[in-house]
Amino acid sequence: MLGVIAHWLPNLTDGDHSLGSLMFLAKPTRALVDSKSPKLFQALRVYNLQTFTQDLIAGLTVGLVALPLAMAFSISSGMSPQAGIYTAIVAGFLASFFGGSQAQISGPTGAFVVVVAGIVTKYGVDGLFVCTLMAGVLLVILGLTGLGTAVKFIPRPVVVGFTNGIALLIASTQIKDFFGLTIDKVPGDLLGRMSAIAKHFDTISVSATALAGLALAGLILFRKFVPRVPGAIVILIGGTACAFLLHLPIETIQTRFHGIPQGLPGIKMPAVSLTTFQELLSPAITVAMLGAIESLMSAVVADRMLKSKHNPNVELIAQGIANIASPLFGGLPATGAIARTATNIRSGAKTPVSGIIHAITLLVILLVAAPLANHIPLSLLAAILMMVAYNMGEWAEIPQIMKLSKADIAVWAVTFGLTVFADLTVAVQTGMILAALLYITKVTRTTTVAEVTDEYLSDGRDHMLHFHELPAGVTIFRIHGPFLFGSTDKIAEITDRIDELPAVVIIRLRNMTAIDGTGIQALEEMTRELVSSGRHVLFCGLREQPAALMAKSGFQAHVGVANLCANVNEALARAQELLDNGELFTETLPGHI
């Protein structure tokens, strides 16, 4: 019967209005469903054995990689190592099942270490569970109301500032275990922590330090020479075996936490009161914002690697569900993990099934191999987290921030300083307030009042498009208005159509009245994508503020001085020169002008 229908439907005539209308509506209906459904459901429509095999290998690989990280993040947060594993299993499964990203891996991450440790210290473990659950509800609300896209209004200096600060704080929390120091209680603030470390440095353990040092060196070598091999797993297994066989006198998971229990715990609802709810609202907002930011940043990384497109609101709903469920099993806050997501994709992942397999892999390890994990030295986990802190720090972004305006530098410095020396919640809130004031300032500066003179009219003719015909192999896009954080995602109008574009793409900036660091970064990434696809990018018509900031940031070196043109006349002449010299392919492409 289905075969007859499948054979008959393509032969419908235009006169069959009822079935023809049904066919006409099928695509829009499918698009509407896809815009609101998890990526897993879409992927399973065309799923096959080959894709499953790729997802299986990737899921197993990233599951093994996630094991030491989950334990290390949990220990650094002031929790037991199994809490991190519970998080990776429960949140990892649910976020992949309901998520809006093609191959994202979710679980505990470094971004939460500092804030979670603060919540545990102040409100206890139950307070953390309530806070995580509240953050999950907030994330679901963000996704359901379509406010997931509002996360883009966090500017680059704020994100870089608190990422730098968090990385520094994580590294500082690992010094004690890295050197095997004996400190009864490590202070929660950076200065107090460093003071305590200095006072007790004479308790250093040679065995722990040697093991951690060798582990860190090994991680660096793996990262540099064999980046495809999961160095953390090799180092974890090798280091644990050495410590066990040599009977090294160092602290392990067994000696500090009395081992890891096998299997998942039962569901337990944390105790909550109205007073607790009110006190935890502010940290819950911080956890929700951090979760949203990192999840969507990770989803963007996955998009670039897989050439896919995530659904931010569906992803936030999934992260919300994951964070509601995680504390019920004794887990921590969870979010998309950039490094594990990249590992997943590099290992061959194609769909969210890989994320589900990653969670199942960890569950099997917990059920079968938990006793073996008891022998893991804490100095090994400290070395792994040191490497994580370095990788997540975005240190290369600091020199780029320093090339921006003084206001951008100030926003970064204040966010970084408050993250390190005050409180993450205060840092993000203050950074956002400063960024909003900066945004208002930049937008107001785009308003001008000037007399129309003969010189103005003459100069304007060089920028007009009306008197030009575009040669084959050239297309022009224009950016109109301020190109600041919050609006940079609109560059997708270009990047989503790369395969359709001709050899030369001209970006007309005559009406781009202002730009900031986030905007410059977006243009640089767009240029990189277009050039890597074999195309050439030209920019023309820069106004005063964008021209000054882009010159200061080194944008010219990124795109080439010859590709920055004064007006559209020069840009078209430069495009024709490139085409005539045969520097680029010029065959006709679909949709080119």
Map the helices and strands.
Layout: H1 2-8, H2 17-36, H3 39-43, H4 49-76, H5 81-98, E1 106-107, H6 113-144, H7 156-173, H8 175-179, H9 190-199, H10 206-225, H11 231-245, H12 253-257, H13 274-306, H14 312-325, E2 335-336, H15 338-346, H16 353-368, H17 370-373, H18 378-392, H19 397-401, H20 406-421, H21 424-445, H22 454-461, E3 474-478, H23 492-495, E4 504-508, H24 517-532, E5 536-540, H25 544-552, H26 555-559, E6 564-565, H27 568-580
Parallel strand pairs: 3-4, 4-5, 5-6
Antiparallel strand pairs: 1-2
Helix pairs in contact: 4-5, 4-15, 4-16, 4-18, 5-14, 5-16, 6-13, 6-14, 7-18, 7-20, 7-21, 10-11, 10-18, 13-14, 13-15, 20-21
What is the domain total for the residues?
4
Number of strands: 6
Radius of gyration: 27 Å
What is the beta-strand fraction? under 5%
What kind of sheet is the major sheet? Answer: 4 strands, parallel
Helix amount: 55-70%
What structural class do you assign from the helix and strand content?
mainly alpha
Shape: globular
Name the average pLDDT. Answer: 83
Number of helices in the DSSP assignment: 27
**How are the strands of the largest sheet arranged?**
3-4-5-6
The unreliable regions are: 1-25, 584-593
**What is the first-to-last residue Cα distance?**
47 Å
